Amino acid sequence: HATKKTMADHLRKYEALFTLTPQRMRMIVEAFKEALELGLEKPSQVVPMIPTFVFGWPTGKETGDFIAVDLGGTNLRVCLVTLQGDGKFEITQSKYRLTEEQKQDDGQKLFDFCAECLRTFIDTNSSEPDGVLTPGEILPLGFTFSYPCTQERIDHGVLIRWTKGFGSPNTEGRDVAAMFNESIEKYQLPVKLTALINDTTGTLIASHYVNPRTKIACIFGTGCNAAYMEHVRDSDKIKSMGITDDVDMAINCEWGAFDSFVHEHLPRTKYDIIVDESSNKPAEQSFEKLISGRYLGEILRLVICELVDEGVLFLGQNTYKIEKPYVIDTAFLSLMESDPTDELLMIIGIFNHFFALETTLAERQFFRALAKLIGRRAARLSACGIAAIVSKMGYLDEGCSVGADGSLYNKYPGFADRIHEGLQDIFGEKGRNIVTHHAEDGSGVGSAIIAAMTKIRK
Ligand code: ADP
């Protein structure tokens, strides 16, 4: 008769599955670096390294009023940004939540919704007495559209494929700037779309505007991605587009795609494989699926469900609520990790309230430890991506700042510390030279600065 395993025994198994050693991390960094280089060399690689047509850093002298529309994975943000020209800005913004239906609805309808929200925003902000917009004025609009697009110029972009759970038909393969322009005309909005950018590119430019030590930007939200400034001379792909090789251009890495299809380099557990295979885009965005907010809760849920099936957890209780995919939000992992009480009262509350389940203290300690393993792995993998860019660009000795944004980075306790710890595991002491910081309002402000930079170039 085998002795019954304790929750601590179970935890050891998951520790082994979810822990990344420094050695393993260094191997991932090497493979990652190769993937970045390949993407700069030739078109259509796994990590596409998309040229953004944002040339060089802002001077900090950009000024004026701009509208920014940011279609993220979860929210639509509309902002009015006033650049004051000395690394300072003012921002007024509204947020509109997207429904799951809207994410799958016809593409033109999605852009119509963006235009409708913009209409509301403009009307609200032009009405006296506290309106900030002048009626009759046409404002330049920066459109932050954070899905991989190929661009031939700054105000144009063909959607390669949807990510982050979007699936709107009639959009992939089409110019999304033209589609949005159609909606802008339909709603007769007093704006002119001048720049189509990715949130990472926006964050890169905005972070540099405020802190010139910034060389890289990352987003850790519904999805996960990075951008940095590249020398055109070091990219055969960009040179072959006829761009002079004495300039720099921001690159949207779309690094969430690292290791897609081949699955050679990342340590995927069977839970990660289930997440992948049951997603609307199997085999794609492999790196993102181990890291981003959209998936971490689901990974935890799959481990819990395995233990339910094995008769370890919730014996005699009805578990139907927790058996539904994606019912555990990544925000729950944050809450579990930050529960300050010995009894873990927050975790009692979550399981009771959302899933109608009773938990023992040993189970709650296990859930918290599991959240920590999954959250820590995500941060350490993120460190691998950052390290790959740092190492490729030779930023280690001099050091640099990494502008970061997204709910995972901003709200998950210890996420930034774990990235920094990971960078030291990869690079040793010198890893301390690479520091991440929160980029406030990055994508909106960045989009305004880029619209301003475009205006100056023209
Ligand atoms: P987006 O990337 O869609 O623009 P966010 O940066 O807010 O927007 O990211 C949303 C993602 O962050 C969701 O997947 C959500 O699960 C996750 N999230 C929201 N709140 C938290 C939190 N407190 N801790 C960790 N993750 C969170």
Q: Could you list some keywords that capture this structure?
A:
alpha/beta; kinase; glucokinase activity; binds adenosine-5'-diphosphate; ATPase_NBD; 16 helices; 458 residues; Nucleotidyltransferase, domain 5; six-stranded mixed beta sheet
How would you summarize what this structure contains?
The protein contains 16 helices and 13 strands.
Strand order of the largest sheet: 1-11-10-9-12-13
Structural class comes to: alpha/beta
Which residue ranges are poorly predicted, with pLDDT under 50 across at least 5 consecutive positions?
none
Which overall shape is indicated by the principal axes computed on the Cα atoms?
A: globular
Number of helices: 16
Architecture of the domain at 57-211 and 440-450, according to CATH?
Answer: 2-Layer Sandwich
**Cofactors and ligands:** adenosine-5'-diphosphate
CATH class of the domain at 57-211 and 440-450: Alpha Beta
CATH level 4 superfamily of the domain at 57-211 and 440-450: ATPase, nucleotide binding domain
Computed Rg: 23 Å
Give me the strand/helix succession: HHEEEEHHEEEHEHEEHEHHHHHHEHHEH
Overall average pLDDT: 94
What name does the CATH topology of the domain at 57-211 and 440-450 carry? Nucleotidyltransferase, domain 5
Distance between the termini: 80 Å
Strand content: 15-25%
Biggest β-sheet description: 6 strands, mixed
Helicity, in percent?
A: 40-55%
Organism: Pleurotus ostreatus (Oyster mushroom)
Protein name: Phosphotransferase
GO molecular function: ATP binding; D-glucose binding; fructokinase activity; glucokinase activity; mannokinase activity
Family: Belongs to the hexokinase family.
